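Question (not urgent): is this output format expected?
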Amino acid sequence: MQFPDLPYEEPETPVTFHFEDIAFDLPDPEAIAVWLSAIATTEGKLMREINFIFCSDEYLRGVNVEYLKHDYYTDIITFPFHEEGEKDLQGDVYISSERVTENANTQGVTFVHELQRVMAHGVLHMAGYSDKSEDEERMMREKEDFYLEKRPIKP
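Got this back:
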């Protein structure tokens, strides 16, 4: 049996937002999607298809245990579907809204501010940045701060 060659169809929008076991109002998702795509473009990448999945601490801890074998809470996990060094970015970014809330309280910023920081962090990971060493973490924070200055929603 022969299967036809089906053309690749670009997603309607390269950035989508999903909610697993939590719900909150994501302010101006279209503006945030454009901003996230602009981060990728500025980093020399093209946002092909990135899914942002918002979830609870327990949900993300389960993902962390199952796929990364880490039994602890975290605010974000990225799963790139593209090869390292590729220009087109594809993947999933899981974000715990509970960790974002706690981080925002600890840092003395709004939930929306911290959410945008974590989302930028995810795009930067997709673009090839790491935060494992002190130097890498410092570079990541500098990039986050730079892009936060251009964020679409400023409280």
